[in-house]
Amino acid sequence: MNRKILLLLVVFGLAIFLSACGKKEQPVDVDEFNTAGVPETGLVIDVTELNGQTATTTPGDVIYLKLSGEADSGNQWSVISPTTGGYIMLTDHQLIGIADPTILDGQFTDEWWLKIEKVGTFDLQFDYGTFGSEVIESFELEIVSL
């Protein structure tokens, strides 16, 4: 009986040893964890006055957009597109006047800094309103990244 237990333990130990030997470390894809994206070019393009137009950019350029609204209305600016494709990366976002509507005389500003991540053409759209209600205002811009 003891021989059977000993034999079983040896077989079990050998099985564990052999299964551990067969596993190799897989290399880690560093790009999978690269949250910085492409390097910035240093160029910031103010597109605030370009609603309905086209902006030409290069990967690494930063687009600046300043939108405004009524602080006490309950409305907000929301990103509508792009939501996929990896074309842009948010580098900064600031809301001024929501917590204290008296700062901007009942108004608020919604400032966005978006870095262009790759070559392509896409639409940038923000809608102003209350979630689930009719859109009050839109900002739309075609981005051509060369």
What does this structure look like?
About 5% of the residues have low confidence. The strands form 2 sheets. A 4-stranded mixed sheet has the order 1-3-6-5, with no helix packed on it. The chain has a 4-stranded mixed sheet with strand order 2-8-7-4, with no helix packed on it. The protein has one domain: Immunoglobulin-like (Sandwich), CATH 2.60.40. The protein is mainly beta.
Rg over CA atoms: 27 Å
Largest sheet: 4 strands, mixed
Output the number of helix runs: 1
Structural class: mainly beta
Q: Regarding CATH, which class? A: Mainly Beta
Helix/strand order, N-terminal first: HEEEEEEEE
Q: Within the largest sheet, what's the order of strands?
A: 1-3-6-5
Mean pLDDT, nearest integer? 83
Number of strands: 8
Strand content: 35-45%
- CATH fold naming: Immunoglobulin-like
Q: What is the helical fraction, as a range of percent?
A: 10-25%
Q: What is the end-to-end distance?
A: 77 Å
Quickly count the domains. 1
Mass-distribution shape? extended
What low-confidence regions span 5 or more consecutive residues with pLDDT below 50?
Answer: 27-33
Judging by the overall fold, what is the CATH architecture? Sandwich
Looking at this protein, list some descriptive labels:
four-stranded mixed β-sheet; Immunoglobulin-like; mainly beta; 1 helix; 146 residues; 8 strands
Gist?
The chain has 146 residues and is mainly beta. The protein is built from one helix and eight strands; from the N terminus they run αββββββββ.
Secondary-structure topology with pairs:
Elements: H1 2-21, E1 44-46, E2 54-57, E3 62-70, E4 76-81, E5 88-96, E6 107-116, E7 120-129, E8 137-145
Parallel strand pairs: 1-3, 2-8
Antiparallel strand pairs: 3-6, 4-7, 5-6, 7-8
